[in-house]
Design a protein that fits this description.
Structural class: mainly alpha
Shape: rod-shaped
Distance between the termini: 26 Å
Number of strands: 2
InterPro entries: Get1, Helix_hairpin_bin_sf
Protein name: Guided entry of tail-anchored proteins factor 1
Membrane topology: Multi-pass membrane protein
GO biological process, one term: tail-anchored membrane protein insertion into ER membrane
Oligomer: single chain
Family: Belongs to the WRB/GET1 family.
Number of helices: 4
Amino acid sequence: MFYKESVEEKNRKTEIAELKKELKSIPMVDEFPKYARLERQIKKLSTESNKISQARSQSIVIRKCVLIFIVNFIQLLISGIVIWMYKSEPVVEIESKWVFPISSLLSMPSGSSGVISAFVWIIICRCAISQIHSIFFNDFGSKQSL
């Protein structure tokens, strides 16, 4: 999308296409040496073109991995700061009888019952978002048919 082919790649592809046209016009039986030479030249250019495109693909993958790492690190840093700043303040107050068995877990680390702490709220939101993402998108990032 943002990574276009280089001029060298485009030139090689057009050269390969021209050589293939020329190869089709040559009768294999009558002019075998010329036909074989053109075939070898096409294979050589195709191999070089594939190497260049593989190098470009590798650089794209590396850039995506670095970007994902940076975004995840920033997200982790912001989550840590929010948890540290608001660790004793409740995000949501509810009646403790609604969540009786897990009331103390939801209020962790503040300890007061009937509240959901920032730490637990971030965990709940993160789990919900990942579940929604897994429902609508497959591992390759494209939309699944429902």
